[in-house]
Amino acid sequence: MIKFFLMVNKQGQTRLSKYYEHVDINKRTLLETEVIKSCLSRSNEQCSFIEYKDFKLIYRQYAALFIVVGVNDTENEMAIYEFIHNFVEVLDEYFSRVEPIDELPKICSALEPQQACFSPDSSSFKGAASTTPIY
Amino acid sequence: MLNRKGRRWGADACVVGFSGGGVGAEFGDPLRERMVVPSLKLQDLIEEIRGAKTQAQEREVIQKECAHIRASFRDGDPVHRHRQLAKLLYVHMLGYPAHFGQMECLKLIASSRFTDKRVGYLGAMLLLDERHDAHLLITNSIKNDLSQGIQPVQGLALCTLSTMGSAEMCRDLAPEVEKLLLQPSPYVRKKAILTAVHMIRKVPELSSVFLPPCAQLLHERHHGILLGTITLITELCERSPAALRHFRKVVPQLVHILRTLVTMGYSTEHSISGVSDPFLQVQILRLLRILGRNHEESSETMNDLLAQVATNTDTSRNAGNAVLFETVLTIMDIRSAAGLRVLAVNILGRFLLNSDRNIRYVALTSLLRLVQSDHSAVQRHRPTVVECLRETDASLSRRALELSLALVNSSNVRAMMQELQAFLESCPPDLRADCASGILLAAERFAPTKRWHIDTILHVLTTAGTHVRDDAVANLTQLIGGAQELHAYSVRRLYNALAEDISQQPLVQVAAWCIGEYGDLLLAGNCEEIEPLQVDEEEVLALLEKVLQSHMSLPATRGYALTALMKLSTRLCGDNKAAILEKMPLVERDGPQADEEAKESKEAAQLSEAAPVPTEPQASQLLDLLDLLDGASGDVQHPPPLDPSPGGALIHLLDLPCVPPPPAPIPDLKVFEREGVQLNLSFIRPPENPALLLITVTATNFSEGDVTHFICQAAVPKSLQLQLQAPSGNTVPARGGLPITQLFRILNPNKAPLRLKLRLTYDHFHQSVQEIFEVNNLPVESWQ
């Protein structure tokens, strides 16, 4: 089950965060800082799966942006890895070009309602978010 | 499904669009003219926040904006409410409090404009949750929206419900959702299915509502619906065994769907990197795993399919590998055929050789799960696993370490230990403790020789001494103590190690103890296993003094060093300061692998040390207990645990008075008779302690009168030690009544000839009798 979904830039600023289990707001910032710290400290050749407390973190880097998904033990890590890439492709399709710096706030606000079809299960989210036409 | 060739979406407003639309309405309204600053568009706010150079500046901007937003909410402006809320949500996402927006969400949801509803539902998802009572207020709005029949609105409502629906809301709205499950439009249906998943998680009783439609939903062609349905079925099966049995019937259908997916050619809609809909495949495989677990029939149905998936999937890209991985997990979990399991292990082996680290990581994780059940299959991949130890990647090396430790067995222990020790030297600090304890455990279990074992522990202590567990010191001292032939070797090695480095506390402690114990061997200088080294007394003493005075030494270490110095003072100078500083006999250890009875006896020994009063189980009963355990477990440590106790101290405490110990071959002796009162002596020499003699004095009365106030005292020559236990009583009733027994314990370490003088006083026939006599004819076996 996906616990959270984060998009964070290299400076550590959160661009998008979506939590599927309730986490207190002050704990969120702490969590995000720690998560991004562990992702930033890894080099290119290292594997994309990190164990952090009782989550597994699966991250993928796109230019200056990190997309991090926190899951629990039952998930297939490689499927989530694929899913992250799929999500980015969706973003890319939806907006003609994805430029992490500028587009992201617009993306996050606009997509949220559609992304609202996130259900805690990753593949289902995939099934829901990708059919996004409103009409 | 998403069409990657660029089908453009309908002209739905993105934020730039709808926030721009609000501007025109502002001017001309007299109320608005009061506002000095027109409300910011979301985009502008974002730019302002981005423009802030420091955290403090950002906070300032946000606080100012929040004040505006609050004012706007108070004024109750319906036109801009959605924009204000959108800004508030953005601010919330950055981590600032936004609870005052909750009621606005409700108002927006209730409005009829789609743009309002949209932001309102979004706000509800982010700001409201079960813990605030306000969330129940949107139940009605959701209900209305669900029954309205406008798809986007229904979609929004379903999404919100599935994200933050509480148990009460779920119960209220379950019928609505159920109706939507069977609607024609796939867009709404798949969202309804996902909402059902959430509802079942919150309110398990609703499973009965959502179970019947599943079978029908499985027949759909639309992948989104299929995906949702599979998730729903998975959730149902995980929650209730009855549902599990019910859904075993659909295994053939699932197999069919998966087979179609696998054999289907390229389809633009569903293909990712050449694999058609890997997400659906993975989900089906997961469901098959749940259904096939512990169930022969379902597992058999799946066998062919799993083999087919495993062989046909294209593994050049990650998507294919993800499916393959899930297949392997499924094969491992169900009752698969042996050939299939071998196939799974081989796939994992192939993964291990892959250059992509992600794949190696998942392979190592799965092999760890397999190592318990298919140990020999995993052993084949041992060399590759050991290779992975050398990885620089922290996640990989951790997994490789765990797996390597699990793979150590008696045949490969030397090679593996070498690898692991090399790893210990270079591994990152957080893995050191695990590695060190793993090595020590494995060494304990599989050590081929004692010397190797000592060497290994020594190596671990020198490399990672600060990370070992606390009982490592005790274990090592125990081990060295027990290995008689290796004393000289160990003390030499430890001395060398200590001379080089006195900072690793466990090593220093062990070394100090060893030098204290076997200092004479160290100074004797000859040991065939290491090259001879001449060590003087002064060097040894100087080293110990250095340890004592070093500021790196813990108090415990200083204690060890002091004791060692004390011991050396007797050994080296030749004084025999007697028993205190004699070489310590081997103390039973309380380690985790001590056998049951060793532990029990140690506890018994400890108990008896603490309480010299005879309350412990009697010696004979303890021995009987041992026999029982002997019979039960095949693998028992002889000698009897009473054996190694130091000196006679423990033994004579354990040998307790109340019941006479098992009979010995020494014949009894009648020493006294007078007027029907007899005194008998019976002798026991316990085999485990040759210096000890136990004499049981029995006083019997065959006369017509009672014997009362009976006291028996004894004396022995000075070279023997005598201890009298309390008698069983001091009255012997007449005519063969219950005799009095008393136990004498005589320690005769020098095997001096035994002489015994007895003094009896008692009352008999109203006369007081006193007798003093020496016992003659004591059997020779009692003291030789």
Radius of gyration from the alpha-carbon trace of chain A, in angstroms: 14 Å
Structural class of chain A: alpha+beta
| Arithmetic mean pLDDT of chain A | 70
Largest sheet of chain B: 5 strands, antiparallel
What is the radius of gyration of chain B computed over CA atoms, rounded to a whole number of angstroms? 42 Å
Structural class of chain B: alpha+beta
CATH architecture of chain A: 2-Layer Sandwich
Percent of sequence in beta strands of chain B: 5-15%
* Overall number of domains of chain A: 1
Oligomer: heterodimer
| General form of chain A | globular
First-residue to last-residue Cα separation of chain A: 30 Å
What is the total tally of β strands of chain B?
Answer: 10
Distance between the termini of chain B: 99 Å
Largest sheet: spatial strand order of chain A? 2-1-5-4-3
Largest interface: which pair? A-B, 53 and 76 residues
In total, the number of strands of chain A is 5
Identify low-pLDDT runs of chain A.
Answer: 98-135
Q: Percent range for helical residues of chain A?
A: 40-55%
Largest sheet of chain A: 5 strands, antiparallel
% residues in beta strands of chain A: 15-25%
Description:
The complex is a heterodimer of chains A (135) and B (784). Chain A has 135 residues and is α+β, with helices and mostly antiparallel strands. In chain A, 43% of the residues lie in helices and 24% in strands. Chain A has a single domain (1-109), classed as Beta-Lactamase, CATH 3.30.450. Chain A contains four helices and five strands; from the N terminus they run ββαβββααα. In chain A, strands 2-1-5-4-3 form a five-stranded antiparallel sheet, with helices on both faces. The longest helix of chain B has 21 residues, at 55-75. Chain B is built from 35 helices and ten strands. In chain B, helix 4 (42-51) runs antiparallel to helix 5 (55-75), helix 13 runs antiparallel to helix 14 (223-239) and helix 28 (471-482) runs parallel beside helix 30 (505-524). The model of chain B is unreliable at 1-36, 575-579 and 591-661 (pLDDT under 50). In chain B, the strands form three sheets. Chain B has a five-stranded antiparallel sheet with strand order 3-4-5-8-7, with no helix packed on it. Chain B has a three-stranded antiparallel sheet with strand order 6-9-10, with no helix packed on it.
